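Sharing a chain and its predicted structure for anyone who wants a worked example. Both blocks are below, sequence first, tokens second.
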Amino acid sequence: MAGDAATMNAFAREFSYWKSHFSLCDIFSDELSYSLLFNNIRPDRVDQAMSTVGMACLPNYFLLVQVDNYQKISQSLEPTREYFQKAIVINLIRKQLEALNLSGFAANILNTERVICFIALDHERHPDTKAFFTEFVALVQKAVHSRTPYTLSVAISEECCTLEQYPSAYQKVLHQLNESFYSGIGAYIDRSSVGKAPVQLSLAPIYPKFMAAVSRNDLRRINTLIEEMFSIFTQSRILPQQVRVDIVRLIRSLEEYGFQCGVPEDEILAFSKHSIDGVLSEPFLNLVQENFSSFCYQLSTSLERHNADQSYQFKTPMECYISEHFAEPLRLGDVAHVFGFSEGYLSVIFKQNFDQTFSEYLLAYRLERGKKLLVSTGISVGEIAFQVGFNSNSYFCTAFKKREGLSPKRYREQHAPPNFCKKSVDE
């Protein structure tokens, strides 16, 4: 019985909290915001729908507001308290609307760290739209910052005059808000501050560089590579989700390298999990960078502490680097610079680890890649030569015949599948 009474008392307290902090205004506002953003209002019901939030017409702008540190702070709160933290932000926005005598409403976007504010802006009263929103956003950010632990990043929509315009405007504003990932906390992003569309990048070529720096516990080189990589992210403005995926892939690659070098798996996984969790959850690029940097430094220290296998420390990064750059005009001096060695030292240590010179290894690797292309594609021998790093068809053919005992054309005829198309433009 005592347990039942305690349960009922807990329920009563929770119900009382919800009852005192949640109103019909919240319900109508949340519902209407989704209906507008996803064009789910019948044209003949617009007036009725807007009346539920006390508006006489459609709003012509909206602000998408990101509560920057919401996820981190909310983790320490009870579920009901966490939910209503955004309600506090919403109510502060509503007070600003009332104080400025603006027609609009604010609502919660459930299951996200965002809220939204719709405004019917009178252009006669506020002819300078940009100046108005700059001032309004500053007032809201100041009010929230003075009364809560939160900071806000805000993106402004283009003007919407019909129901059909809200969904596309919402997608554009979501893209704008991605800019806060690069700008940091408290960003105000209007359309003019958003640059070109994001591009796709590949970090594969940088993997071996990190392996080499980490294996040598070269903290200066590690820091330089990290700064270069995150500078590329900042300049390219690729989507935050892609940044996170790329960094996690790089961590996994370095993780596997650590296993190969003899560092205990549980030791690496302990700090890599913490770093990956941070990369996936931190809202800003500089915090993602801090988590990745921490992982690199810890892995480097572990390699040194466990006296990692020297052959793996050199061979694995070198093999990886050549596999990514073999089609380029690779020179021993350039590779030595990447790995932080003198050209003479690299020449010696390469021969010790691979039992052949750098030039011999590179030539053999290129020819092996050429062999695979000969039997798996129908492209010409000349094109294959350039794809695997030779600067002339004749040199490729000469080197190939010297190594295999027959020409590339004859090799293709003998080793390609029976039903494989052997036609090419220059054979």
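Comments welcome. DSSP finds 20 helices and five strands in the chain.
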